[in-house]
Amino acid sequence: MPKITRLADFDFSVENFLDACSPAELREVDLLIQSNRYRNKMNAKTKKLTNTADEKDKIEALGFNSSFLLGENKQ
Length: 75
Description:
The protein is an all-alpha fold. It has helices at residues 14-20, 23-34, 36-46, 53-61, 66-69.
């Protein structure tokens, strides 16, 4: 029997993904992001960023606290 293989590329933005989520799914995403597992991952990645105004604007445009993510509020 012949086999048909179909390749497809899908490109979804984060915004498109979140728009397609139900309120319950959005809450689940929020709970995951707030967990230590993902907070540590985000903090490790953002330590590589420099503190330029442009990067701060990009971070805040995504709805995040740039001071927290860039490690500027260390006590």
